[in-house]
User: Fold this.
Amino acid sequence: MRVVIDRVSKTFTDRRGQTVPALDDISLSVDAEEFVALLGPSGCGKSTLLNIVAGLLRPSAGSVYFEGEHPAGPSVTAMVFQEFALFPWRTVRANVAFGLEEAGLPAAERARRVRAYIDLTGLAGFEAKYPHQLSGGMRQRVGIARALAVDPAVLLMDEPFSALDAQTRQLMQEELLQIWERTRKTILYVTHNIQEAVYMADRVIVLSRRPGRVIASVPIEVKRPRTEAVLGEPAFVHAVDRIWGLIKSEARAALREAPP
Ligand SMILES: Nc1ncnc2c1ncn2[C@@H]1O[C@H](COP(=O)(O)OP(=O)(O)OP(=O)(O)O)[C@@H](O)[C@H]1O
Ligand SMILES: [Mg+2]
Assistant:
């Protein structure tokens, strides 16, 4: 399924009635089965944009629509959150089942799907554990399994691995790429890490500092499957350099700016 973001702007009004422009006239699309990374400095509106695509927030202007075949039943989008956002009182199994219960799936089908996504995300053996009994990496596997279980056409990921240590993060990135090769979802992946964006994506969309505008769309020519070995390849290094060149002045300006 293709996602089209068409001239989306978003302005918030805070408690004192001050307006905060978060997104300014964003147009971009993500093709079916494409992996697009959305890269931008802190506070540039990345989560806001993802929430608009998920239908959790309404844009102040513009629209988001989806193109392509989509079987009835499954949700169009599902989100994986930065802070995992699991239900602490539910076991791993019950967390993964959540969206399926909401969708009213029969118990047998629910159990079958939960089993399949627990296996796919490497959670076998942890079904009866609660989130507090799991490491950060395992928790985010639950977040990913829960999102995939509803069989969304589009997976939205908001800095899913930023709370993890560097080694776990690298492993989870590789695992997510393997899962994506198998499930072929359309993925919109938010990050503020250039290396991560280049490592994962077919294309990196670079946003300016707040209010977020699209600065560039950079195709990534690094071959797949990608493993740690690609980190030293010329195509990888070149893409990282190019994107850093595009955002350097934005990053410097953001550093000098007072927080909103
Ligand atoms: N509900 C809200 N009310 C008022 N302002 C908001 C609201 N949500 C977000 N903002 C503001 O909009 C801007 C964009 O926020 P957003 O969370 O989308 O940025 P982000 O790019 O995801 O940042 P980060 O990288 O830190 O996660 C920020 O200035 C933020 O303070
Ligand atoms: Mg955010």
Q: What stands out?
A: The mean pLDDT is 92.
